[in-house]
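Table S7 (text form). Paired inputs.
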Amino acid sequence: RMREVDLGCGKALLIKESGEFHAVGHKCPHYGAPLVKGVLSKGRVRCPWHGACFNIGTGDIEDFPGLDSLPRFQVKIEKEKVYIRASKQALQTQRRTKMMAKCISLNNYSLSSTNVLIIGAGAAGLVCAETLRQEGFSDRIVMCTMDRHLPYDRPKLSKSMDSHPEQIALRPKEFFCTYDIEVLTEMQVTAVDVKSKIAVFKDGFKMEYNKLLIATGNMPKTLSCKGKEMENVFNIRTPEDANRVVKLATSKNVVIVGASFLGMEVAAYLAERAHSVSLVELEHVPFKKFFGERVGRAVMKMFENNRVKFYMQTEVSELREQEGKLKEVVLKSGKVLRADVCVVGVGAVPATGFLKQSGINIDSKGFIVVNKMMQTNIPGVFAAGDAVMFPLALRNNKKVNVPHWQMAHMHGRIAALNMLAHGTEISTIPYLWTAMFGKSIRYAGHGEGFDDVVIQGDLDELKFVAFYTKSDEVVAVASMNYDPIVSKVAEVLAAGRTIRKRDVDAVVFLSFRTGDMSWLTGKGS
């Protein structure tokens, strides 16, 4: 039903579904995954690596991550032969940026007023701006960010730490000029007056808006112990942070505090470069709350085989210096670790402190509460990304926080559509991935509060799939070296179907023995 075909100067993905032929680009525009290895379901193909979805009739991106769509090629059937007509350029680029409007009313605005103001220039903010332009919005759009850079691929800060800002930019500078998306860098909003519709910046500048998106993300937590302000102690927040850590860590002793996604990815990246890597964690197994104890232990073993030393069930009590620079990390267990560099990855808090007096509904943990259309309790004010609590259809519209890259993209799109009064509700399956030592764990769903994990495959060989269940229902799935099963399950969940625990126990074995996963779509026995 899907076949990669070579057209001489490039390849296309030829698809046959319900008797109709379609041809689109064969690579996912996000990171170049071969879509022929993905999942075809009801008019769209889902990427096997990170879950982005594309309409097979138009090539348009329908779920994320990534910004661009697929090129669509003309298909003609003559005498039982299939002919594909494609431009050489499209075959070579394998991506298509949707048509966008430009601003036609800049002269109507002073510097201190805009129609749409977006606070934050991550994935949510950028996708919101692009979606507005794709939908024909031709008024002024201003994005502002505390960062010194234009929007960039933030997951690479811990997965590819020596990447320079221009290498991980989501769009080139010319893109923003072409489509009249203004980006104010190194500009921090300190207050929002929702009655007057004015945002106040740290330097005193004020900007009036008509519609507002708050997409400020999270701020990393810091240590509370003595010496936390010392030189060579880092939170990875910017490309400069990541680059500096790599430079300082080469052939030196590194201590990482926190076996979070960030902490583990940094440990994996530095393991071959540093003299030693030590990881300090309060739990007894990394990723226990997210992936469960058995998967966590398998991952821990992989790290230990790559020279990473774990110090579990303890905390940092003190950072010691010598001549103003970090020298040792003292643990509450009494252990003293040599350290030239310390990276802190102990979680994050929503960057919403500036909204406390605004009247925007913020919960006790600082998250902005929104509805299915990403609207706050204030008309015209929307919120998206890591700093929000939103209703997740997969979990019976329970309000959840999903601080991951794919979800931020989708939030931004839904917010933009509803700024334009489309009345579109969010409907997506959370999808994330982590990369360590050249291997990836893929994950779909929302497993918070799971009460059992059904594992098939071989954890020691790092080839497995784990189904996370709550009562009798599968709420999430993770896999390593078994694509595209996570994308397959994501499609089933996206269709509103329920996978029962008993189905997994009885049938998943077949998937491993034969590669047949048709049972998941209800077509197999």
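Next pair, protein 2 of 2.
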Amino acid sequence: MSSLAEKDRPIVQLLLNTGTCPRCILRFCCVGSQVLYRHPHKDLMKDLQEFLENGGEKEDTLCLDGADPPCKRIRLEPREEGADDLNHNGAVPQLPAAGGGNAATESPAGKVCNVCLGILQQFCEADFVKKVCQKVNSADYQFTSFVFSVSLPPQLSVRERAAWLGVKQQMRNLGLPLAKDDIVQLKEAYKWIIHPQLSEELGVPADGKSLFEVSVVFAHPETDEECHFLATACPDCFKPAKNKQSVFTRMAVIKALEKIKEEDFLKHFPCPPSSPKNLCDALEIQCNNGAVFVAGRYNKYSRNLPQTPWIIDGERKLESSVEELISEHLMAEFKADSFNFSSSGREDVDVRTLGNGRPFAIELVNPRRIRFTAEEMRRLQQAINDSSDKIQVRDLQLVTRSAIGRMKEGEEEKTKTYSALIWTDKAIQREDIAFLDDIKELKLDQKTPLRVLHRRPLAVRCRLIHTMKCEYIDEHHFRLRLKTQAGTYIKEFVHGDFGRTKPNIGSLLNRTADILELDVESVDVDWPPTLAD
């Protein structure tokens, strides 16, 4: 894409005269050459001065050929009919500089830009790039590419609109047509400049799909209140949100700018905008790695260990949990900020999980380390298993976010196998319980158990007991092995929960029954994949 042409001359001269930096001038002239924005600030200023001084003699002063992709644009206003036309004889009249002097030579090179507030000036220099890279390197992340994001002060959108309206107003006063109605986004131009420098300094490519994000948050306290008039003009655009410190977000400001009439805007804000005294502040330079997911199966051998931390009214009831025994090792090795634990169902604190174990997955948030070999994962699994006799982990492996969905798919249709030690108040003989072995696909109606009613909604759930197998122990005890639909409350199926589960073992045997011990013997979920020992 070619850069400046003769028709851009009035815009260049006006913007230079009002304190706009060379790169913002290129944006307002819709220059899409990425390479051109990367030229040093002083060189661009010199080229603009020559462009103005030489008239039409050197029209291609800033023309560079390149295979740049088409750029994104900000649409500032609807295209007006005839906007692309020049005057009647096809030429652009010369525009006198403000004050009768040369606008280009009167614009000091060190002045803070009245549009970008310095972002396309000092924050494109090598010193700032090195500062960002020092922050990245000191954070000790593993990454093979990066995506760069930038958060801009919302008042930049107001200043951008004001600068354009200022150009439009003066061009109209001089009887000149306005040839453009959209400009290159500041964020896009900034990334064109900063990406190659960051990539060279960090030694990895910029990639829009990378999971490793480097972000910079800019602020400009001096001009913070410049958005406030929009709240009066367009109150519907500024609504408080719980997770926002201010109603003046970038999106709210852009929405208001789209809504406000031009004449109302001009009453409240100077066009062109005044030059600020100070540069923007780079408030934060942050790094963030995309989450890593680890899956496996756990066995729980203790009858005094909850799956997740047991805390009631802020008081911890038991010192540890399955979740903590596993996650503390993963957090340390992956150097993550936090984690989220999930599993295929859960067992009560006094229930053991035997057999092949229960599938689980852990999301590790913002990990510094992300690459582990199969051998390293085996060693990590062994470290977890050596740390406690209450749990054991198997098939520990890295998985994708999408793969975790398999753990939850069709959860209601899955089956689980249990072993329950049952007590009865009246004496029993082998023949009293033998008939239970013949019952198949027994349908239950289970009201939400009293013990979980504080955290689950009241409902009647239909569940199936697929098969049962009895093992007589003595006159008051027998062991019952059950294969059930996932989600069946086994304890309530035994004792009836004051009639809230029908039928139940007590009603089937016509006596009071209670459960003394319960073990989960299998969770029939074919995930995660079994690994060789």
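The CA atoms of residues 262 and 511 lie 84 Å apart.
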